[in-house]
Structures are given as C-alpha cells and as structure tokens.
C-alpha cells in the first residue's frame, strides 16, 4: 500500500481511469491531444488539456500553461493568430483570483517582454504578478541578469526568480529532472553574479514561493469571494421562496409574468432612450444618443446643404411686391406688404420639407432598432418577442405618418 501511495503518476481528464507512470508517455499524450484539438499544423485552441500529477515531491499547485505570443502566422494558422492568442491569454490572466507567472528569457530585453506587458494591463499595480527569468545560462559572456533578479531594473512587488531549464539537447539525451535540478543548483552556486542569491533562485524555490503566495492570495481574496457567494445564495433562496408554490398552468401566474416582461421591456426602452441603462454600447451611437445626434448634427447639416440663390430670391421678392401693388405702382411703402411676405416665406418653408422628412425617417429607424435590442431579452418566448416588435413598431410607424402629415 505504501509503495502504491508513493508511486508518481499522472491522469488526464480526457483519459479517465488511465494512470501514466512514464512521463515520456505523458508528453506524447499531450502532443497527440493537442494535434487532435487544434489540427496538425500549429493551430491553437482555448480548450485546456487537464493534467493532474500525483507525487510526494511536489506541492499542491494548479498551473495553467499559456502559449507565447506568435507574431507571424505559420502553416495553416489564421492571419490574426497574434490577436487570438492575446485574447486567450487575457481570458485567463484577467481573473482576480489567480497569480500571473510572467516568464521572460534572460537573453532578451526585459522592456520588450510580452509577458510583462500583458500582466501590466490586467495588474497595473503588480499585486498578482511574479517575474520568472529563464535561460540565464545562455546569456553572452560578460553579461548577467543580476539587476533584474535583485528587482532593481523593472521592479515587481513580488519580485523575480531565476531558473535554468533543460535544453533541447538535455531532453533529447533523456536527462532526468533530478539531474537537471542538481545542474541548476550548481549553476547558481558557481556563478559569481548569482551565488549570493542562490538560495532564492531555482525551480524548487519557485515551487515553494508559488505555493506560499498562492495560499496567501487565496486567504486574501477568500472574504470577498465568500461574501459574493453568500449574496448569490440569498438571491437564489429568495427566488426559491417566490416560486415555491408556483404552478405553471395557473392563469394568474402567466398573466403576472407577461405583465412583468412587458413592464421590463418598457423600462429597458426608456433607459436606452435616456442613456441611463446598465449596458453601454462602446462600438457605435445608439438609442437616445443617436436620435440626439440626428436633431443636432444631421438635421442642421441637411439644412446647410440646401441651395440658396440670393439674387433669385431678391428678384422673387421684387415681383411679389409689384404684383401686390399692381394698382398702386407709384406708391412707395416703408414695410413689405403682408401678402408678399407670406408668399415668399411659404415658398422658402416648403424647402425645409425634404430635410424634415429625412430626419423623421432616421429617427423612426433608430426607434425600431432600439425596440429590437430591447426584445432580445424576450428571445426565450419567440411569439411574445415577435408580437411586441410588431405592436411597438406599428405604433412608431403610425406616429411617423402623422408627423409627416404635419410636416
């Protein structure tokens, strides 16, 4: 029993019940599953491969291995592969209850680190970010990462930890983990720039720090998480109490539910027109804001576009006045005759009809679009959604016709 307990093995979620004791087989299974999910030509997928490792030599940790940023598509990768990978990474590191392990090679400029750049976007104060510097053994002679590891160059609140991983040659040569850890320890103890901090470097120390900081992070975020769960529990209990005696076939229940949905539609429509809704459209103007723009920008623009010939207008005014004074040609007046004024003004006002009708059409279209957005919440009830749109849109078109008649 003791032998079984201390045997290291791994299990995949997609291979339930199968235990892998050979970690070369684990690597092969990861490659096979990756090809199955993403294809054979370096595709990507946000669906995780869940692997659990049981060993007396490791601490309890949950790690999510995210891909590095690909700048140039290869193989059958889509042109926007960089944006796809970025979106997938952001999906995970945006969660407040996780720590971010920002891994950067030591032989590149730390200021250009994609990992640190992404981490700073979601964690600007560095409360959840731990820096990891790899490939310290591959740096050019005469250079080192001492300032980075001492947290002086680009400081992080949780600092940096240096590690030396196995090279591809070591992996191909079947160099085991124990030998790799001994070589890593020897590197830090023998390097003049790192020997004074050797106890704070290496994979075992990183493992220990991650376990400690993750535990502390969980303890810090647990109260807020517990409060959120309790709030959700109370809300659910309240709903259970409301629907405890619910009878689906009760006509009064159906009528009440229908009235509540119609009232909610009315509230949502009003909020979208007023601009006080809980959801703000960040892609385009909509609702009341767009209608406001039609009246204050589009309508004046249409008026400015109207053709106006001052010389022609003066000639029309002259003819109108002369035609009114046909029997009093030699009589002069201080003011323009009322009939001449009305005739000219009416003719000019008629020119406003086009821009007015165009504005009415634009406003009507936006109102109908707003109605469609509000009825999305009724999508569970297609008939109700369809009838609501038909009734409200019909009323809007009726008002449109009356407005056009008035114009």
Automatic annotation (TrEMBL):
Keyword GTP-binding applies: yes
Gene it is expressed from: Dnm3_0
GO CC entries: cytoplasm; microtubule; plasma membrane; presynapse
GO BP terms: receptor internalization; synaptic vesicle budding from presynaptic endocytic zone membrane
Stored InterPro entries: Dynamin, Dynamin_GTPase, Dynamin_N, Dynamin_stalk, G_DYNAMIN_dom, P-loop_NTPase
Gene3D superfamilies per the UniProt record, alphabetical: Dynamin, middle domain (1.20.120.1240), P-loop containing nucleotide triphosphate hydrolases (3.40.50.300)
Dynamin-type G domain: residues covered: 1-223
SUPFAM superfamilies tied to this protein: P-loop containing nucleoside triphosphate hydrolases (SSF52540)
Keywords carried by this UniProt record: GTP-binding, Nucleotide-binding
Domain of life: Eukaryota
GO molecular function: GTP binding; GTPase activity; microtubule binding
CDD domains: DLP_1
Protein name: DYN3 protein
